Amino acid sequence: MQKSFPGRVGLRRTAAVAALGLAATLTGVVLPGPAVSAPDERCPEVFPLADVAKGDAIEGLTVTSGTVPTGFTGTIKGVLEDGIAPDVDMIMADLESPELDRVGGIWEGMSGSPVYAEDGRLIGAVAYGLSYGPSKVAGITPASAMYALRSKTGAPAAPAAKVAIPRRQQAALASTGVSARQVRGGFSALPLPYGVSGLGAKRLSKAADAFDFAADRVFAAGAAPLAERAPAVRPVAGGNIAASLSYGDVSMVGTGTVTAVCGEEVIGFGHPMNFSGPTTLTMHNADAIYIQEDSTGAPFKVANPSAPIGTINQDRLAGILGPIGSIPATTPITSTVAMRDGSGSRIGETRATYLPAMGDIAASHLMANLDRVYDGWRAGSAEAGWTIRGTRSNGTPWTYSFADHWTDRADITFLPSVTLYEHAETLRTALGTKGTIDAITIDAKLSEELRTWSIVEVEAEVRRAGTWVPLQARKKIKARAGAVLRVRATLASVDNNLGRKVVRMTVRVPAKAKGAEGTLVVATAGVAPLAERVQGSGVDRAIARLQRSPRQSDLVAAVVATPRRTELVNRTVAPQNAKITGGKRIRVQILR
């Protein structure tokens, strides 16, 4: 159900930012007293941090199955001064419940579970755990820090990546059965787990590496639907809450727990999701299926998210916050995928709300739909094109369109998705912080045939019109600077399903290359050189560079010369109806 990816971390976050998973829901009997009574939509009164004392009894709320919170108990072990960040202390507590006993300790998805004093005042939210393996010792984010989210603006302060446990408390923890390694490791926010729908576990592992997912750990999960199938349920303290980067076919969702509902505002998690400060994530309810044990790491909650019910607009050190009802603007990602022979087709839709993950989301969406229609990881060919529309920081629109062909003898649905990821990431990076990607539309066709052209012969017209010489038959040809070279390439189908054809092209010798040595190249993408560097800046330069880059189905003829250590390139592109392999080249003596 889940897999660890210790290598690349998509959005370059610190370990402390990767904390979606330490918290969510415990199983047990509903406890008596004000802490577990029907949740009040008024913010519960804060229990002063200065009054928190070792040995104090606490009660908490969380969900272990379904949507109804149940109770857990615990005992305060002490307070770590500045344990979360400068001026933000961490409260340590030992928790108890039947579900904690069953799974071995605090689980990912319990983040935000409210913890109350015996008089019903809110102490804070479960949000941190010991660094090595599950245990029942929790780090609690103080309620006062979480309530401060309601007035937050500007950039967030950085949390501590790891919190050391003072020596005087290490011995006390060891006496309760916590291992020496756990005590020495201290507290940390658990790696942020994203539940990602639309991709199976094996496919998700490959995608997470190729697309540089924004998480240390991701796992296959259910989708958040585009629209509610039933009336939306209002969040409650101790209930499930999910925040998503996208929903629909590919839902990237982190599930945790509501700490408090203050009128129309929901506060949860007790730590960051992406740690982006002001943000635009989508808020969802969730239905917990069960808490999954994990012998190699921390247990984690498995849940189905609902359709959107609100917006997360603050993603801060002490948690997430946002209003119920208002849904953030989304980027629709739509793909129409069909088999070339007409045997199947599907239209897929995903809504993305988080621009920094747009490449991950778009590529995962395309792969999920390609996999669904092709129904297997196997050899074949694909042709796909997409149009990406957006808005510059000055408010003017931009558009980028692309199309290409791919062939692969093992996994044809993977390659187009990787290309889309690279293009979306290039454009996203070029936009800066104020531009937007407004829509991505994709059309693709798949075939079980291996549709590939091979360049079997290339000839150049030299001396006089009508005399053609194969490039491999001569060591060098002569041409004047500024002259037009005529070439013709013979293409043959690799698997005899496209036949054979001749493509005629012309390419001009660089006029400023008089007296230089050059090379005539007739080849496909990755072999033929690119043209001169593009001008401009920002997204316009990125679009120009992407448009000039040769496709795998482009046949390129280029003359390259290097007079006075300056590379000059003129080229001609002839798009074909399948991927091209191979190439030919010959030296050119450029006459004055």
From TrEMBL:
Protein name: Peptidase S55 domain-containing protein
Keywords associated with the record: Signal
Signal peptide limits: 1-37
InterPro entries attached to this UniProt entry: Peptidase_S55
Organism from which the protein derives: Nocardioides massiliensis
Ranges of residues in domain Peptidase S55: 1-162
